[in-house]
Specification:
Order of helices and strands: HHHHEHEHHHHHHH
Structural class: mainly alpha
Number of helices: 12
Distance between the termini: 59 Å
Oligomer: single chain
Strand order of the largest sheet: 1-2
Strand content: under 5%
Number of strands: 2
Largest sheet: 2 strands, antiparallel
Helix content: 55-70%
Shape: globular
Length: 308
């Protein structure tokens, strides 16, 4: 079926499809960082976790032929990184930001080392759901061809928001994030809660990495993450540490990342590549706006390093 000439209407249509595709890894890694930060800890190592999740998923999918098994292994890989980060940060006088940077470098180094033999092989992709099958317009069909992990991420955001607001486990996470002393007075072990939160957050980031290598862009290379793990910190600040807001913020970042390809899809080839920097510019703007010394970060857990 040949494409229909939609003119400039093709730009918002391409941005819709691009926003959904680009936002999915942002969604998972931001949910992981949101959970970690709600417990009072920052994990800057999620960039390394994201890359390790991507290569572990790709390698397992290639060797076994099962992309879903690759997603599971990526989640386990992310959980291990989160567990290691959590345990190290539980030691006395350890700075979580410094540990996160070290974990990021270690994760990227391991991924690049073990991923050298998987640059050329082609692993099976994750399946997508053709929600645009009712339409005869190929561009609309492509925009609404949505990967199952996007819906899994939306479900995870809803569940995480409910757990934090309505369960005892969520109460423990919120109390530990706001006051270590209050948590101890309640009989809660702050380090234990933070380790579990960091472990779960790492698992979510690992799933985000599997999406990168098994669907979009759907290959393995050393520049696959493009700093999305680090941008998740700004995204969580923008979302005010609320999981459902993380979903909207991820779509916003995804839309910013889709501007360049959308313009290219309608034949605008002059200067479109400058719009590829839109997510990074958005991250910079958010960090500048939220770093004012004259006002507190609304919704920020009091035990976070950035609030002290």
């Amino acid at each position: 079926m040949s494409e229909v000439d939609l003119g400039y209407w093709g730009v918002p249509l391409a941005m819709l499809g691009g926003a959904i595709r680009v936002s999915t890894p942002f969604l998972f890694v931001s949910l992981g960082e949101c959970l970690t930060e709600r417990s009072g800890r920052i994990n800057l190592g999620l960039e390394g976790t994201l890359v390790c999740g991507a290569i572990s998923a790709y390698a397992v999918a290639f060797e076994t032929g099962s992309p879903w098994l690759g997603v599971l292994v990526a989640a386990l890989c992310g959980a291990l990184f989160g567990l290691l980060h959590g345990l190290i940060c539980s030691l006395p006088k350890v700075n979580d930001i410094a540990v996160g940077i070290a974990m990021m470098l270690m994760g990227m180094g391991l991924a690049f080392y073990f991923g050298k033999s998987y640059v050329q092989p082609v692993a099976p992709d994750l399946p997508s759901i053709p929600l645009g099958a009712w339409s005869d317009i190929p561009q609309l069909q492509a925009a609404l061809d949505i990967n199952a992990l996007f819906f899994l991420g939306l479900f995870a955001a809803i569940v995480l928001d409910w757990v934090l607001r309505n369960t005892r486990a969520g109460l423990y996470v919120r109390v530990v994030g706001d006051s270590t002393a209050a948590a101890r007075a309640m009989g809660v072990h702050p380090n234990r809660v933070r380790v579990i939160s960091t472990l779960a957050g790492g698992a979510l980031a690992g799933i985000g990495g599997s999406y990168l290598s098994l669907y979009y862009p759907g290959s393995w290379n050393e520049g696959i993450s493009s700093g999305q793990g680090l941008m998740a910190v700004a995204l969580v600040i923008f979302a005010r540490w609320k999981p459902l807001y993380c979903f909207g913020a991820a779509l916003l970042f995804g839309s910013a990342g889709a501007i360049g390809p959308a313009l290219q899809s309608v034949g605008i080839s002059s200067g479109y590549h400058l719009f590829y920097a839109a997510p990074y510019l958005l991250t910079l703007i958010i960090l500048i706006i939220t770093s004012s010394p004259h006002r507190l970060l609304s919704g920020a857990p009091a035990e976070l390093s950035i609030t002290k």
